[in-house]
Amino acid sequence: MAELNITERQSGDITILDLSGKVTIGEGSVALRNTIRRLLGEGKKKILLNLGQVGYVDSSGIGELVSSFSAVNRESGSLKLLNLTQKIQDLLAITKLLTVFDVYDSESEAVSNFS
Amino acid sequence: MIKEKKEINLPSRIESVETATQAAVDFASKSGFDADALFAIDMAMREVAANAVKHGNREDETKLVEITFENREEGFWITVRDFGEGFAVEEIPDPTNSENLLKASGRGILFMRSFMDEVEWSIHKEGGMIVKMLKRH
After folding, report:
1. Domains assigned to chain A
2. What SS3 class is residue A36?
3. How many C-beta neighbours within 10 Å does residue B102 have?
4. pTM value surpassing 0.95
5. Helix %, strand %, coil % for chain A, to 5?
6. Is residue B110 within 8 angstroms of chain A, CB to CB?
């Protein structure tokens, strides 16, 4: 089984990626990178990452979230995070990235905050 | 005093990061650490192993990553040696500085320091980096 499973769905022009598994060095980080690149290539620039089922993220995975955020911003898009587990929230606090990402606990609230 | 010790040598490939992490958690769990401590050990071991494989040995599979686990009075020691060129830890930029926040890498050392009680770096006299980390009981 893949380290990271990514399921894609649409809510209007917003693409929601439901992630489950691990975003860690190697396969998990690459899977996320490839999915974001593909979406940007398809012109999908409003992306919501649902991390509720992600049990584990390492520094490589955090780096991939940052790279995704930057890549989407470069295309004048927007990437937001949904349903952070306590552990991921702690990692974003340690790295001071909670102030960088737009983070939501409610999908409807997140969706309504895309411009 | 060493109560228990284990040594493993792994090839420098990404898959070894998972192998090393699992071995560390297995060893520590037998030493009575709780779930939060095991998570911390997992996080730190993953980072130190990834650094040794990627940045130390540059994924050259002919170079080993040498890992020692020791259960001592004061806690669980992890020692990792690579065979790379080494680096000066004080020269690694602080990833929490605002100018570094959006960099894709450079957070591994921060995680090691955050999740372990002590972390020290040294250069082996025959070359390569040695990282020693302690998780107290």
Report:
1. 4-112 (3.30.750.24)
2. helix
3. 14
4. no
5. 40, 35, 25
6. yes
